[in-house]
């Protein structure tokens, strides 16, 4: 007699779950297999130099005596020097006013520049997402500032902001906004703002591109339904568009924040040797190369890495963004 036993639904569900789990495991193994060459290259190109930098931060290394460096503990970070008369003083990176000034400059620059770039990038992305003639040409034109190398942008803007020959002062004086030329990159009051202006001009297209990619993924049916229901466009933006593009917006912000926290080339070219704009990267480079204090510069580079890592982890923790960009 033929067997007419039918598998119970629970057994069928368990089988499907086991098959799905096995498939996920295979996908994970395949992903690691494909990622292995890249991880190996990263370990050699980035991991080893990072470990060497951390090590040099605990030594007395100089540029010409790197191989003869000796371990000195945390002296480069913090050291108490006793003067023998009952008094003493802390020395080291954590006790140096110049370092904390560089930290403040870096954080201030990052918050202001990324904030402005996010705002302007969102506006530009909304414009580029609309339907109009020549939209493709406008999208390509918007990316021109971002495509220009940072060194070229810095030198170009340095001439435009020159207090004697710059076109920026000439234009502002022509419309009556200023009465006399301003030394944008030399004045303590305007040096950091000059750097922010150049960075916003150059990097806003990058933000707009990332935000536009998020806008392109928003279903058009949502807007049609909102239009039929008579929802005001401003309410549609804050209640529909902004929440839906939140993952893309957060990714764009973290990418730009990481780039801004380690800014070097723009400030080094536009405002060299200026304490008002010296960032952590510039501080580290000066000690590594110019002042021949390789160990001290390595310690500064290590702290820069730790600060960036902590800010990134905190940002992702507060935003609760997983690997797929979902909230």
Number of E-type strands: 2
Fraction of residues in helices? 55-70%
Seen as an oligomer or otherwise, the chain set is single chain
Average predicted confidence as pLDDT: 86
Count of separate structural domains: 2
Order of helices and strands: HEEHHHHHHHHHHHH
Instruction: Return residue spans where pLDDT drops below 50 for at least 5 consecutive residues.
Output: 321-327
The gross shape turns out to be flat
**C-alpha end-to-end distance:** 56 Å
- Rg of Cα set: 27 Å
Tally of contiguous helical segments: 13
Which topology of the largest domain does CATH recognise?
MetI-like fold
Name of the CATH architecture of the largest domain: Orthogonal Bundle
Output the structural class.
mainly alpha
Characterize the main sheet.
Answer: 2 strands, antiparallel
SSE arrangement:
Layout: H1 9-56, E1 79-82, E2 88-91, H2 97-129, H3 135-142, H4 144-147, H5 150-160, H6 167-174, H7 191-216, H8 220-228, H9 233-244, H10 246-261, H11 265-270, H12 280-290, H13 294-319
Antiparallel strand pairs: 1-2
Helix pairs in contact: 1-13, 2-7, 2-10, 7-10, 10-13, 12-13
Keywords:
327 residues; disordered C terminus; MetI-like fold; two-stranded antiparallel sheet
Task: Characterise the protein shown here.
The chain is mainly alpha-helical and 327 residues long. It has 2 domains: 42 residues; 223 residues, MetI-like (MetI-like fold). 67% of the residues lie in helices and 2% in strands. It has 13 helices and 2 strands; from the N terminus they run H-E-E-H-H-H-H-H-H-H-H-H-H-H-H. A two-stranded antiparallel sheet has the order 1-2. Strand 1 and strand 2 form a beta hairpin. Helix 2 runs antiparallel to helix 10. 26% of the residues are buried.
